[in-house]
């Protein structure tokens, strides 16, 4: 299936093209941007336009074969040179604004996530002379309308979509095809003689596992398909599984949810609230957890109220529920991580399984 380009990579390419046009009067039909892994991504430029004291460029968002709600949107960047060396990124029409805490972007800032910000800045530095700064405004003319069909209203992001992406590349998400594409990762581990694997939701989890010393062949991405991948581990003779990833994803397993896409099931607040209540949390604290928009905001509440012990309890419950799901056919441990990769909690079995795999605990 055909891969696509994220909104972040689209914005970075539009910004670079606008800067090239402003400085050279050229209008290339394609430009290349770099993702954090050093991969070059080529992006087509749809058109150029003039702005006061600057230039603009437009990229047509291409979701590939992914059922991406942003596919076909115009991602626009306007570049105006500044008198200093700073590159300032602003959100224009159709780019949401963060209004509530707990997200990766501070309150009051445009909803342009850290990796897209890095890609935009890196792309501009490639086009600008050394020491030359600029003001770049990212816009999505139809972004506000499309955002109503996303999770942004629930997250407190108003006025448009978010500019997202951790790799710049959109992988096709046809569910059956995607599930089938994940299973070979288990086969690679088995072929390497491994009886233990790390199941993690995505690439960030895989990156964190590598950073902690676990071998690449042992790390298997499972996306949202926790139950499916656990069953495939059983089918292929795996004996031990370390569930490893962001606590906002894995907390769902503690509630017995084994397809973790938010459209299928989402009980993050309820699960944390129930555990906090069972641990003796005050009613006001439980209500604050229930009203939180993100699990990062919940984490702040737990830290503030000396309730971080329930993260360990949640990890143990996730392991227990997962073992029940496969009827005891696997030994399972769970490690919960924060957004920055810090380990928040890991049960005893997680440490044993991870230790055998080289986890530098």
From TrEMBL:
It catalyses: Co-precorrin-5B + S-adenosyl-L-methionine = Co-precorrin-6A + S-adenosyl-L-homocysteine. This is Cobalt-precorrin-5B C(1)-methyltransferase. Its EC number is 2.1.1.195. Keywords: Cobalamin biosynthesis, Methyltransferase, S-adenosyl-L-methionine, Transferase. Pathway: Cofactor biosynthesis; adenosylcobalamin biosynthesis; cob(II)yrinate a,c-diamide from sirohydrochlorin (anaerobic route): step 6/10. Pfam families: CbiD. GO terms for biological process: anaerobic cobalamin biosynthetic process; methylation. It comes from Desulfotruncus arcticus DSM 17038. The keyword Methyltransferase applies. Belongs to the CbiD family. The gene is cbiD.
């Amino acid at each position: 299936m055909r891969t696509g380009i994220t909104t972040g990579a689209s914005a970075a390419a539009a910004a670079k093209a606008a800067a090239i046009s402003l400085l050279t009067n050229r209008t290339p039909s394609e430009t290349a941007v770099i993702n954090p892994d050093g991969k070059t991504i080529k992006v087509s430029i749809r058109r150029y336009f003039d702005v006061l004291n600057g230039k603009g460029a437009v990229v047509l968002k291409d979701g590939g074969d992914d059922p991406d709600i942003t596919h076909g949107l115009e991602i626009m960047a306007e570049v105006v040179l500044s008198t200093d060396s700073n590159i300032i990124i602003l959100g224009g029409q159709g780019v949401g604004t963060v209004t509530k805490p707990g997200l990766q972007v501070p309150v009051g800032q445009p909803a342009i996530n850290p990796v897209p910000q890095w890609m935009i800045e890196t792309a501009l530095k490639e086009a600008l002379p050394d020491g030359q700064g600029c003001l770049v405004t990212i816009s999505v003319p139809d972004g506000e309308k499309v955002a109503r069909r996303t999770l942004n209203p629930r997250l407190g992001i108003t006025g448009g979509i978010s500019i997202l992406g951790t790799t710049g590349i959109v992988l096709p998400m046809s569910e059956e095809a995607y599930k089938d594409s994940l299973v070979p990762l288990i086969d690679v581990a088995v072929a390497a003689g491994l009886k233990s694997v790390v199941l993690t939701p995505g690439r960030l989890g895989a990156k964190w596992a590598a950073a902690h010393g676990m071998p690449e062949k042992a790390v298997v991405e499972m996306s949202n398909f926790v139950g499916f991948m656990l069953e495939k581990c059983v089918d292929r003779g795996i004996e031990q599984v370390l569930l490893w990833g962001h606590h906002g994803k894995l907390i769902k397993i503690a509630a017995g949810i084994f397809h973790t896409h938010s459209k299928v099931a989402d009980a993050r607040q309820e699960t944390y609230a129930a555990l906090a209540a069972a641990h003796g949390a005050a009613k006001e604290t439980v209500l604050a957890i229930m009203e939180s928009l993100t699990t990062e905001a919940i984490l702040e509440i737990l830290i503030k109220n000396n309730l971080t012990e329930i993260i360990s309890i949640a990890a143990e419950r996730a392991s227990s529920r997962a073992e029940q799901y496969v009827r005891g056919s696997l030994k399972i441990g769970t490690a919960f991580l924060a957004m920055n990769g810090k380990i928040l909690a890991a049960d005893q079995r997680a440490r044993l399984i991870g230790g055998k795999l080289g986890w530098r605990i």
